[in-house]
Amino acid sequence: STLSSSSAASDVYKRQSFGWAVRLLAEPTRSEIRSLYALVRVADEIVDDPDPGLSPQLRSELLEELEADTLRALQHGRSANLVVQAFASVARRRGIGPELIRPFFASMRADLGLRTHDDESLDDYVYGSAEVIGLMCLHCFLGGGRRCLRAAGPRGAAAGRCLPEDQLPAGSGR
Question: Which pLDDT score is estimated for 100?
């Protein structure tokens, strides 16, 4: 159910400092941002889990499965994974599509293997790991659709580039 998936998403985000900031948002934006953030956290946990028993191959497979499940839920409206279900519900309602989801997962995959970036790969990484998240949030803030894209403008996603240095990947040179 939507209530169960929203609760699962809320549980994931509460453990992060971001959760405190989200409390300042009015509903339904607050719940929508929680749902987006929960999926982002799950993907990030797959990549960053310190368990040495979790091989790069298994991390990659888990990430691929999460992406496939997310895209399937986006298309069909259902997932057995409550966090994916909550994300897909928001994405479908707010017009967040594969054009934002795929670059995010590509950046997560880059975290699994790529240790040094050139300018192009760093631009792609920052776009997928930060800018698309900002654009997803913008869809929630503005209700999605063309209004959101007009508000973002040609460099509207650039707000996501304001990453603290400790959030940039190792070897990024920035």
Answer: 94
